[in-house]
Amino acid sequence: MTGLLARLHSDERGAAIPEFAFILLPLVLFLAGGMDLGYQAYLRSVLQGALNDISRSGSLETPDVGCTGATLELRIECAIEKRSNVLARNARYDVEIKNFYDFSSIGRSERLTTDHNGNGAYDPGDCFIDLNENGRFDMSAGRAGVGGADDVSFYKVTARMPRLFPIHRLIETTPEYAIVATAALRNQPYAAQRRPPTVCV
């Protein structure tokens, strides 16, 4: 019996199996995570390319994006889905389209023309350029839709779809991608651009 134990103690055959088992999970996690990040970057590139192509068509007076629908937003969502669905299968798309008077208005409030107390913020009675023409001061100067001639259209598309690998079960992350693409493009000057009014309220 003592000889058998001595032989087992000195026998190193199969020692690589438990050693490999120790590194297998981190290795698989590393490979799956790398492929997941690469796939996500590729999808973002495809989505951005599709949006850039469609937004150029949307800047025309009579846009033709290759889809039919009741509104331009629905036609654009359809066109993006058609162009990227080869790679982004089972994806859901949220399309947000706003228009601004110029590029400097994107992500900013409406502009004050009269600041009675000089505090740099809107107070009742101050005058401002009503860029979205709703009669009140807004922290966002955008209007819904693509706008008119010479307006700046801002497109934001969010694609949500299941991950390539279920790595959310191993690390703390979401089970879905949320890939965002944006584009800002000035519409063609097919007519005179609207002039927003100055309002004092």
Which outline best applies? Answer: elongated
**Low-pLDDT sequence parts:** none
Indicate the mean pLDDT. 83
Strands ordered across the widest β-sheet:
4-1-5-6
| Helix content class | 25-40%
Main sheet?
Answer: 4 strands, antiparallel
Radius of gyration: 28 Å
Helix and strand content put the structural class at alpha+beta
Q: Element order, helices and strands?
A: HHHEEEEEEE
Query: What gap, in angstroms, lies between the N and C termini?
Result: 100 Å
Q: Name the beta content range.
A: 15-25%
Number of helices: 3
Q: Would you count the extended β strands for me?
A: 7
Keywords: Membrane, Transmembrane, Transmembrane helix
Transmembrane segments: 20-39
Domain TadE-like: 14-56
Protein name: Pilus assembly protein
3D architecture notes:
This is Pilus assembly protein. InterPro entries: TadE-like_dom. Keywords: Membrane, Transmembrane, Transmembrane helix. The protein is α+β, with helices and mostly antiparallel strands and 201 residues long. 32% of the residues lie in helices and 21% in strands. It has three helices and seven strands; from the N terminus they run H-H-H-E-E-E-E-E-E-E. Strands 4-1-5-6 form a four-stranded antiparallel β-sheet, covered by helices on one side. A three-stranded antiparallel β-sheet has the order 2-3-7, with no helix packed on it. Helix 2 packs antiparallel against helix 3. It is elongated, with a radius of gyration of 28 Å. The relative contact order is 0.18. The model has no long low-confidence stretch (mean pLDDT 83).
